[in-house]
Design a protein that fits this description.
Blueprint: E1 2-6, H1 10-24, E2 30-34, H2 37-44, E3 52-55, H3 63-73, E4 79-83, E5 99-102, H4 107-124, E6 126-131, E7 134-139, E8 143-149, E9 152-157, E10 161-165, H5 168-175, E11 180-184, E12 187-190, E13 194-198, E14 201-204, E15 208-211, H6 214-228
Parallel strand pairs: 1-2, 1-3, 3-4, 4-5
Antiparallel strand pairs: 6-7, 8-9, 8-12, 9-10, 11-12, 13-14, 14-15
Helix pairs in contact: 2-3
Length: 233
């Protein structure tokens, strides 16, 4: 995922970049900074971003004008305005902006925005499965767990399951950054679907109970702890 911060104050850009990278730390997230709207637009035409943090009060292309141009290029982009003066935020109404953050941005407020972006990106992500009838995309947000079955893997959602010829270890590497973790030799679960841990079992939505191996208990609980805190693991 790529995130852009556009502010004419270089020090503030660096500060925001540092805070965002610290929050995402181990995920594959790149934060680019821009001191002018023109520079951001040039790069955006070649490579999109989601989200974009925009300072409202900038010389040249101000944040409001820049937001309009970005929205023309991408209707679904997440826009977050930064401002030192609350009254300027009124100019941005009607722009479908996620939040208006007052400088200096509070840690809790920034975390809320980043959590929302993570959820939004995950809900858009799909796992493409080769089935007997062709390829089918399953939203990651719908997957409860994956189970190894001999040379196959069963991908289970609340509505149905898909049996495909694949290796669970490959799924583990592919989906780790999306909140999936191995709890047993034969099971990979979505941390977002975990509702409890009881002795040697992990309880998922729908009261689904799966075995938790002793060797994986520590890493699972650490991952769950960081996930609940809204951090990358």
């Amino acid at each position: 995922m790529r995130i852009a911060v556009c502010d004419d104050e270089e020090q503030y850009c660096m500060q925001m970049q540092s805070r965002i990278e610290a929050w995402y730390h181990s995920l594959d997230v790149v934060v680019d900074t821009y001191l002018s709207g023109k520079d951001l637009l040039k790069r955006f035409d070649r490579q999109g971003y989601d989200p974009v943090f925009l300072d409202i009060e900038m010389p040249g292309v101000d944040g409001i004008s820049l937001a309009k141009k970005l929205r023309e290029r991408d209707e679904e982009i997440v826009l977050v305005f930064l401002t030192s003066h609350v009254e300027y935020a009124l100019k941005g109404y009607g722009m479908n902006v996620l939040r208006y953050l007052t400088k200096p941005v509070r840690e809790e407020t920034l975390k809320e925005v980043l959590c929302y972006v993570m959820e939004k990106m995950q809900s858009k992500r799909r796992l493409w499965l080769k089935t007997e009838t062709g390829e089918e995309g399953v939203a990651l947000s719908e997957i409860l767990y994956l189970e190894a079955q001999n040379q196959n893997v069963s991908v289970v959602t609340a509505e149905q399951s898909y049996l495909i010829r694949y290796n669970l270890g490959d799924f583990e590497r592919e989906l780790r950054e999306d909140g999936f973790i191995r709890i047993h030799r034969g099971y990979l679960v979505s941390l977002g679907k975990v509702i409890g841990v009881q002795k040697n079992e992990v309880v998922l939505t729908g009261d689904i109970r799966l075995p938790l191996s002793r060797t994986r208990e520590k890493s699972f609980k650490e991952a769950l702890y960081h996930y609940i805190k809204g951090e990358a693991f």
